[in-house]
Amino acid sequence: MFRPKVPTMPQPTGLTTPPAVVEPTTITPDTPAPPLAPATPAPARPAVQLTASNVLALVGGGTAVVLVVGAVLVSMLLAVALTAASVAVCALTVRSVIARR
């Protein structure tokens, strides 16, 4: 009753064909590869030119990102603190109710 029944693997039926024999072949190149095109020279000036307005925009954007990320982190910390305080108040209330009985 408690002996496991191990399934048996069925044997293949019918005719089976042997695998095809793969014969090695030789590769003889006909034509040589065409020569590569010469590389283009790098530009002498930098790709990004920083002007006063671009620097001001980068500083303003960085400041905005820092302020937004800071506000999100502070609000998450405040939410955790409020949750911890409310759980503590609930625990004290339950404890006082149980102590009165």
Q: How do the helices and strands line up, and which of them pair or pack?
A:
Blueprint: H1 52-100
Structural notes for this entry:
With 101 residues, the protein is mostly helical. It is built from 1 helix and no strands. The chain has one helix at residues 52-100. The longest helix has 49 residues, at 52-100. The radius of gyration is 38 Å and the shape is flat.
Comma- or semicolon-separated keywords:
101 residues, 1 helix, mainly alpha, 49% helix
Class by alpha and beta content: mainly alpha
Largest sheet: none
Average pLDDT across residues? 84
Task: Please mark out the parts with pLDDT under 50 across 5 or more consecutive residues, or reply none.
Answer: none
Overall shape: flat
The total count of strands amounts to 0
Distance between the termini: 54 Å
**Rg value:** 38 Å
Number of helices: 1
Proportion of helical residues: 40-55%
| Strand proportion | under 5%
| N-to-C SSE string, H for helix and E for strand | H
Summary of the model, kept short:
The chain is mainly alpha-helical.
